Amino acid sequence: MNFIQNLQRSIDYMEEHILEPITYEDVAKHVYMSSYHFHRTFSLVTGITANEYIRNRRLSMAGQELSVSDAKVIDIALKYGYDSPESFTKAFTRFHVITPNVARRAGMKLKSFNRLLIKIKLEGGTIMDYRIEKREGFKLLTKVTKFRNEIISEEGNTEIQDFWKECGDNGTFEDLKQNASNYDIYGACAPISKESTHFDYGIGMEFSGDNVPEGYTLWEVKPTLWAVFKCIGDTGDCIGATWGKIFSEFLPGSEYSMMDDTDFELYSEDLDADCFCEIWVPVEKKTYA
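Predicted structure:
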């Protein structure tokens, strides 16, 4: 239950500090998670980012206060974290679809965004196929770049897809093949410190050479236990959908917890025709006090 408890603790912390200048990085520190891992976990399970949750709760509370008090708009704006009436009015109008001044009128409809409560919900009786594999450590030759944590949940963001296309266009895959033990392709995501605002993502192949070519990075994957999930579909959209099920279905209810280590997508010609790729998640057996 640690997985669920951490999410609930994060919500409790946001609610307790809702009027303070906090961000998802502060919340991640409170629950002892890296910013990236917390951001990905929270957004995939709840459907919104922690920053969106904080913003929506503040705007919901501001609307309630405007409708029942005589406080000045500028005072309410400052109370809920906005530097000026203009920025507050813009955000308020986007959320409630009416301006703060109009919201004061009797009978005006305002939107309410209630506090989240994380529960384990049983529904559907669907089966999530996975397998557990123990694998020795190995090395990847990778082309690596950094991405902002926030892109994980930005709708329509194509930065990682663009990185794959760039590698296909600039000869990266040909360079990798010249130093590879096989032609399986990995999309590796690195563990990061709790304070980091960016994460490393590498595209690579298993390394069999002696010297690392200029512009490439040797990525060492530690020996560990892995939970492996097939992404069924024709496009990369199935990757996000599978991660959503991993966080909302597999991790809360299984006997395994995710380790803060490299996870990766594996693209192989040996996979079934309907399998876009596999997601490999480093796991360990849960311990219960």
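Summary: The chain has two domains: 2-103, 131-285.
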